[in-house]
Amino acid sequence: MSDRATVFRALRLVIPIILLGCPITVGADEWTPRELRILASLRLSAAGPPPESPSNRVADSKTARRLGAKLFFDARLSGSGELSCASCHEPGRYFTDGLPRSRGVAETGRNAPTVVGSAYLSWFYWDGRRDSLWAQALIPIEAPDEMGGSRLHAVRLVGTDTEYRQAYEDLFGGFPAELLSADLPEHAGPFATGQGSEAWWRIPRSMQKKINRTYSNIGKAIAAYERTLLPQPARFDRYVESLLVEEETPDAELSEDEIAGLRLFIDGERTPCLQCHNGPLLTNGGFHNIGTGNFEGEQLDLGRILGLRAVLMDEFNCLGPYSDAEPHDCPELVFLNRDSHIPLQGAFKVPGLRNLRQTAPYFHDGRFNELSEVLNHYRTAPTQLPAGTHELQPFELTDAESSQIGAFLLSLSFDEARNE
Amino acid sequence: MPASDAIEGPRAEWRATSTNGVFNVTLGPRSGEVQIGKFQIWELRLTDAEGQIVFPARFAIGGGMQGHGHGLPTQPRVTNFLPDGHYIIEGMKFNMAGDWTLYLDVEAEVGREKVLRSDQFQVGIVVDY
């Protein structure tokens, strides 16, 4: 590195202090103290280890991880025997499926989000209808358009597979043998397909509770595996880490376009990006309305306004009988804003922006294949009601600037070549 | 504009007078710093027009970002109080930087006559990095 560059780097943190936050214009990668604080908040290392999961007491058990990994890839959980969790969350596609709307037994209404990094999230599904990874994992198994199985079928699989049963008993202290009784149907579940739903309501409530308990434990094992799928540092992270420790030889560089895009991304005067896409996963974890709700037709999807009701009614939520948490361990649910105000119609969970290179198409219904289309949506916010009832504020961005933001966003993708 | 002021100093703290001047409030995060995206415990001190601590009191808390058209991501509540007259608010979380407004509805008996009064606050909270 040249002496001049060394001086620039040494002055990087000193000059801003002298100028009390005035923008530094020398050099392409000079940042003000406030900008450096923003960059520090976005780097992956700021996330730390995944938060604990008090509602799942086996969340960090190795036995649960191993059992969960096998269940995640086991198509026997589905009604047809051909679909598993991995059918829509393919490891080779960063645990997505590459489709606009996922296809299980039938085409679903939503795009499959990645499982990577889900251990950091508080809400699951695009509408937040579940409040834990384990509670989320219970829906697709018996959703008619996803795996088309049933909770009783899943429970009996674990009870009859020797390896699964041993792991289950090691984790949860015994498998209830009565669930394998010939008096019970093969399929039963409140949301199961065909006869399975009717069969569920003929099962005594005491038996339903035992099935639910065992089914919830299956979800907890799957969640223990999913918690191990963590995002890896991207070139952006190495760039920021280098900035913060003032390395003379930076571990990674961003191109001029990527830096220009990053500046636009964090500049609240120019773009609203950072409002919702903040923190190390580039999501604030909330639900916001960007005018993408579908209010009519086959793709009708009101988003959060229904998810809010669903999570409160869910017997598998953090406060429910199958949770291992105490109420004080459930702040997200205890302090949930239950106000169903109009903007929640058509609001969806803010997705993280890491690994966009591997997770197209984008938005809750996969309507856009390219980041340029996504950015154009923000540049031309819908004005017609009801889609016009959204939070987007108009802002000006040239095509070149839009491309620069797109370039920056791709620098947040895990660099597979470097990490092989 | 909300009738409130940020208090100058190392701690993030705000002071406000209620709409009809019945109450005054001082509030801020216990840690002294608003952290974006984190649940934080806040403390609130309520006094009457004479500066006397008001206790007990009933609170309703709401808010949002007027400029963005969305509310608070959570529903904070007063959950406890301290011997020095501070009330404890749990469930506070701001999930983005910018200009937030907190609405506080307060009802309490004030003065020697213990007259039941209610009033509202609008507190402008600026959250930044």
What's a concise summary of this model?
The complex is a heterodimer of chains A (420) and B (129). Chain A is mostly helical.
List keywords for this structure.
heterodimer, A: mainly alpha, two-stranded antiparallel ribbon, disordered N terminus, B: 129 residues, 4-stranded antiparallel β-sheet, 0% helix
Strand order of the largest sheet of chain A: 1-2
The shape of chain B is globular
Question: Helix segment count of chain B?
Answer: 0
Biggest sheet statistics of chain B: 6 strands, antiparallel
Question: How many whole angstroms does the radius of gyration of chain A measure?
Answer: 24 Å
- Uncertain segments of chain B are none
- What is the N-to-C succession of helices and strands of chain B? EEEEEEEEEE
Biggest sheet statistics of chain A = 2 strands, antiparallel
Explain what the structure shows.
The complex is a heterodimer of chains A (420) and B (129). Chain A is an all-alpha fold. Chain A has 18 helices and two strands. Chain A has helices spanning 3-11, 14-18, 33-42, 62-72, 85-88, 133-142, 151-160, 162-172, 195-202, 205-226, 235-245, 256-266, 273-276, 304-313, 331-334, 371-379, 399-410, 416-419; strands spanning 287-288, 348-349. A two-stranded antiparallel sheet of chain A has the order 1-2. Chain A is globular, with a radius of gyration of 24 Å. With 129 residues, chain B is mainly beta. Chain B has no helices and ten strands. Chain B has strands at residues 4-6, 14-17, 23-29, 40-48, 58-65, 70-71, 77-81, 86-92, 98-110, 115-127. Chain B has a six-stranded antiparallel beta sheet with strand order 1-2-3-4-8-7, with no helix packed on it. In chain B, strands 6-5-9-10 form a four-stranded antiparallel beta sheet, with no helix packed on it. Chain B is globular.
Compile the SSE list and pairings.
The complex is a heterodimer of chains A (420) and B (129).
Chain A: H1 3-11, H2 14-18, H3 33-42, H4 62-72, H5 85-88, H6 133-142, H7 151-160, H8 162-172, H9 195-202, H10 205-226, H11 235-245, H12 256-266, H13 273-276, E1 287-288, H14 304-313, H15 331-334, E2 348-349, H16 371-379, H17 399-410, H18 416-419
Antiparallel strand pairs in A: 1-2
Helix pairs in contact in A: 3-11, 4-10, 6-10, 7-8, 7-10, 12-17, 16-17
Chain B: E1 4-6, E2 14-17, E3 23-29, E4 40-48, E5 58-65, E6 70-71, E7 77-81, E8 86-92, E9 98-110, E10 115-127
Antiparallel strand pairs in B: 1-2, 2-3, 3-4, 4-8, 5-6, 5-9, 7-8, 9-10
